[in-house]
Amino acid sequence: MELAIVIGVLSTLGTGMLAQWVAWRFRLPAIVLLFAAGLIFGPGLGILHPSASLGSMFRPMVSLVVAIIVFEGGMALDFRQLREAGEGVMRLTLVALPISWVLGTLAAHLVGHLEWGSSALFGAIITVTGPTVVLPLLRHTKLKPRVASFLRWEAIANDPIGAILATVVLQVLAAQAKFGSGISLLHAVPQMLASSAEAVALGIAPAYLIRYLFERDLMPEILKMPVLIAFALSIFSICNLGMEGAGLMGATVFGMALTNLHVPGVAELRRTKESLVVLLVSMLFILLTADLHRAVLERLSIPIALLTLTVLFVVRPLGIYLATLRSGLTWQERVFVGWIAPRGIVAAAVAGVAGIRLYDAGFKSAELITPAVFAVIATTMIVHGFSLRPLARYLKLTLSDEMALAIVGASPWSIDLGSCLYGEGVPVVMVDAKASSLIAATRRSLPVLRAEVLSQHGQEMLEERPADYLIATTADGIYNGMVCAHVAPHFGRQRVFQISPGVARLDLYHGLTRDARGKLLGEPAWNYTLIETLFDKGWRFVSHATVENEPQPFGSDQNRLDFMIVRRGVGIFFRSAEDNGVVQPMPGDLQISMHAPA
């Protein structure tokens, strides 16, 4: 028993984290690696048998984990993001979903040869895309903010709606099989509306209570995270008593309410939940895929393969085309959104339960729903996961692939640094709260952002112009440290730098703690005053392409200050006294240095 537990933990958590790291390191879609790991450990080697090991607890555990995932996804939905993407989001959630249901039903019956009842359930299940697959893909691709909002809102909003739709279809079909054809969809509509209203109310009301407690300091920091998760799971469970699937809506609405009520402290907690969700998603993908029986895979046939292709190339594109007619979306956005629609955990969980219940109700072709849905899940994850970035680039819906740099603090010398980089094709944005400070940068045609980085508005504006690295260059060392500490969870602590706050403050025990500041840019003596003085004396930033056998290696010339190395398509390497060694440039790399006047 203990050995089985060890094998299960290593197969799920260990392999899941390894897959996430490999995906991050080599820019691969993590969901594809997780899906492959599940197939290997489950149907392949027979190491994992989740439903057999956990018994009747497996499905409820999956449901609770999914509730946490959609709750965290709901916290990513800020209504202020709808300023530009509002029309497209409404069409994708309110118009495209019913159209996709009808088209999916027709495809399942005409192409997959399923009964009409089974076809209707299949069509309802595949309407959901799911945040568990879409959000990880968005993190690895620099999409333009508007099209990213389309996919994010559709995935998170359609998840509970699609689950409720599948539940309603299942209940109607089961009732028809039991009581006769007199039972129609109209009999289920009142229950659906009542359950949806209950989910919205139960999602919003606790959010006001949370805001009341947090604003009045009636909740200790150590309890905030457990309380939020406990509320999300409780809302999910209560809503599901009225109708299966309504719990997902309640958990999503709760997350949305917390974000849009601007509850203090939630932004910091959300970062912790994002890490938790990565762990949960990795575990669920492996477990659900491993739980597929070989008998299910053996039911895959030519009609199911044709049905999968029809869903990819006809149902989704045609549904989006019809839903976005005469909309404000560009043709590139319509093509992109019409193609990208990976299905995820919610579709898998619903298919596994609903297919069995419909089969027990007398629909013989319902046994094909699970293999058909998993065929769609596997194909869309692989095809859409690998095609998202190339298609976005082809349609010009991505930001620059070059590593971008945000420079906080527009002074004469930092503007000169930004201009040097920008002239070499490195994406740069100058950030400052004062319009007067950005005038010189604007005159040199540099992209600028007027915002206070420490504000919510400034953080959102900076996220709309995604940068990979940040350096804080103001004259205030404490402010620079606050900026770096504030954005470090988003950028990564090894990618936020600040100029030296002073040698004494760099003491790791008596000085500024590393968690309260950025990584040191350059040497401890290179503080703001020194760089400003050198600039006034005529020193300027110069770029230099590295050649073979460089006569003066990086960091060795006393008549220049070597700041960074730009390696095209790889990254930016900053010189820092806090590194164990100096990164040496390779032939073709770009060196950025501050040179003395000739």
TrEMBL record:
Source organism (scientific name): Tanticharoenia sakaeratensis NBRC 103193
Listed PANTHER family: NA(+)/H(+) ANTIPORTER 1, NA(+)_H(+) ANTIPORTER 2-RELATED
GO cellular component: plasma membrane
Lineage per the UniProt record: Bacteria, Pseudomonadati, Pseudomonadota, Alphaproteobacteria, Acetobacterales
Membrane disposition: Multi-pass membrane protein
Locations listed in the record: Cell membrane
Entries under Gene3D superfamilies matching the protein: 1.20.1530.20
Name used for this protein in its record: Na(+)/H(+) antiporter
Pfam families given in the database record: Na_H_Exchanger (PF00999)
Biological process per Gene Ontology, one example term: proton transmembrane transport
Domain Cation/H+ exchanger transmembrane, residue spans: 18-392
GO MF term set: antiporter activity
Keywords linked to the UniProt accession: Antiport, Cell membrane, Ion transport, Membrane, Transmembrane, Transmembrane helix, Transport
Transmembrane segments: 6-24, 31-52, 58-77, 89-110, 116-138, 150-173, 193-214, 226-243, 276-296, 302-323, 335-356, 368-388
Broad class of where this protein is predominantly found: membrane
Domain of life from the UniProt record: Bacteria
